[in-house]
TrEMBL record:
EC number: 4.3.1.3
Protein name per the record: Histidine ammonia-lyase
SUPFAM superfamilies on file: L-aspartase-like
GO BP term, pick one: L-histidine catabolic process
Record carries keyword Lyase: yes
Pathway: Amino-acid degradation; L-histidine degradation into L-glutamate; N-formimidoyl-L-glutamate from L-histidine: step 1/3
GO molecular function: histidine ammonia-lyase activity
The keyword Lyase is annotated on this UniProt entry: yes
Organism: Kineosporia babensis
Main location: cytoplasm
Gene giving rise to this polypeptide: hutH
Record Pfam families: Lyase_aromatic
Family per record: Belongs to the PAL/histidase family.
One GO CC annotation: cytoplasm
Length: 516
């Protein structure tokens, strides 16, 4: 999927998933349009009026969480907002990835642009300036419970607006926020009523990671179709089970799409043609080959469900309290991350199963009893050489980790804030484990691709179909074909990197343009 590096305009409309990937991963700039600035100014005027009110208003003239009943006098309210940010910037553990931080910052800025948070225009503009200057606050692995917003991660980002805390600059060098802001010509902010809360109260981190995972998995499920096609071919399977009329008997959209990909990839395969007809004694293939469209298709349908959740969330204005169209300032529970957390956990299950069927196909290539004439472990001289034996061990080890990561985080609520926040989503944790799962899936698929390519070579002089041959030939530009044992880790890494970059799919699509 190609992402344009054009400027992303923020208004009162929703972000697209492509916008998020462009800013988070590819450094696209952001710009607040006039409609957004007017909406922000309007909501700020509502908050400014309430700031003078003698009646307490949550987030404006009260404490937070379990301290919401504590009235804060006017002279202490600036201290209240800054103190909120400093106290909530309480993360621990390693720093998360730059793209995750940029994604969550973009979405917090998008919520500000809706005119529902009560921040000043200068606050939103300064936040945009951080993104455009490629200043990335250091956000830690732990600190969010996925409720009342991704509090600690967003607080670390807000802290940088105050000119405090560590950040990385455009070159990736670690520095202080004060130095980075000065170098970029950005004035540190002094927060006013409601702004501290508005900067930290959203599901932005977990949503950002969901959007990035959707982008990656949309590509990986097609890579899985490609790997399956190579395995079906190399293991002397049949493509008859992928027929369109058979797929239509069970009308799941994802299944039909994966079956279509397999048909396209295996069309006119000399290897498959070599064993069709009355002389073929195989009645049907193993499930890992025959049921690939059913499993891959279920993953596609799960992705569509998660994409719908993400798109709905991208239209949301999440804050507490929130400024309504008619000027009310109302407390609410929209910051609860359950909808996003469930989708993240659902995807982790789908990722684990997609990797599982891939690993089973890899194992079939290596077992001489099931590979239809291929040498044990695809070794040059079995016994002297181990071939790809331990590559399958690596895939199996990754599968063990992926099964662990498939355990849902969203069922593990831990109460906080003196039982005021007594049910939380753990969506941030669901997102963090999904990111690790996506990386594991990519490596499992890389091992299947590498294995299937070697099997295809060993079927010579029979030749594969156009699409699978193109991928096999591309892999040969970085990974040698069959031969004596050699150092495998760099080869697995090269194929995985080629999957990540999109080069593997590009090779296939150049040969068979209809692949989706």
């Amino acid at each position: 999927m190609t992402i344009s590096l054009t400027t992303v305009e923020l208004g009162i409309g929703p972000l697209s998933t492509e916008d998020v990937v462009a800013v988070a991963r590819h450094g696209a700039r952001v710009e607040l349009n006039q409609a957004a600035l007017e909406a922000i100014a309007h909501s700020r005027a509502v908050i400014a009026d309430l700031a003078e009110d003698v009646e307490p208003h949550y987030g404006i003239s009260t404490g937070f969480g379990a301290l919401a009943t504590t009235f804060i006098p006017l002279p202490a309210r600036a201290q209240l907002q800054a103190g909120l940010i400093r106290s909530h910037a309480a993360g621990a553990g390693p720093a998360v990835e730059t793209e995750v931080v940029r994604a969550l910052m973009l979405q917090r800025l998008s919520t500000m642009a809706t005119g529902r948070t009560g921040v000043r225009p200068i606050t939103a503009q300064s936040y945009a300036a951080l993104l455009n200057a490629q200043i990335t606050p250091v956000v830690h692995e732990y600190g969010s419970l996925g409720c009342s917003g991704d509090l600690a991660p967003l607080a670390h980002c807000a802290l940088a607006l105050l000119g405090e805390g560590p950040v990385t600059d455009a070159s990736g060098a670690l520095t202080t926020a004060a130095e980075a802001l000065a170098a970029a010509g950005i004035e540190p902010l002094q927060l006013v009523e409601k702004e501290g809360l508005a900067l930290i109260n959203g599901t932005d981190g977990m949503l950002g990671m969901l959007v990035l995972a959707l982008h990656d998995l949309t590509e990986l499920v097609t890579v899985a179709d490609l790997a399956a096609a190579m395995s079906v071919e190399a293991l002397m399977g049949t493509d008859a089970v992928f027929a369109a009329d058979l797929a239509r008997l069970r009308p799941h959209p994802g299944q039909q799409q994966s079956a279509a990909n397999l048909r396209i990839l295996l069309e006119n395969s000399p290897i498959i043609d070599s064993h069709q007809g009355p002389a073929c004694t195989r009645v049907q293939d193993a499930y890992s080959l025959r049921c690939a469209p059913q499993v891959h298709g279920a993953v596609r349908d799960t992705l569509e469900h998660a994409r719908l959740v993400a798109l709905r969330e991208l239209t949301a204005a999440i804050d507490n309290p929130v400024v309504t169209h008619d000027g009310r300032v109302e407390s609410n529970g929209n910051f609860h991350g359950a909808p996003v957390a469930y989708a993240l956990d659902f995807l982790a299950i789908a990722v684990a199963d997609l990797a599982s069927i891939s690993e089973r196909r890899t194992d079939r290539h290596l077992d001489a009893k099931r590979s239809d004439g291929l040498p044990p472990f695809l070794a040059e001289t079995p016994g002297v050489d181990s071939g790809l034996m331990i590559a399958q061990y690596t895939a199996a080890g990754l599968m063990a980790e992926l099964k662990r990561l498939a355990a849902p985080a969203s069922v593990d609520s831990i109460p906080s804030s003196a039982m005021q926040e007594d049910h939380v989503s753990m969506g941030w944790h669901a997102a963090r484990k999904l990111r690790r799962a996506v990386d594991g899936l990519r490596d499992v698929l890389a091992i299947e691709l590498m294995t299937a390519a070697r099997s295809l070579d060993l079927r010579a002089p029979l030749q594969p179909a156009a699409g699978t041959a193109a991928v096999r030939d591309f892999l040969r530009t970085g990974v040698a074909g069959p031969g004596p044992d050699r150092f495998l880790a760099p080869e697995i890494g090269w194929v995985s990197a080629a999957v990540r970059s999109g080069a593997v799919l590009e090779a296939a699509r150049n040969a068979v343009p209809g692949l989706d």
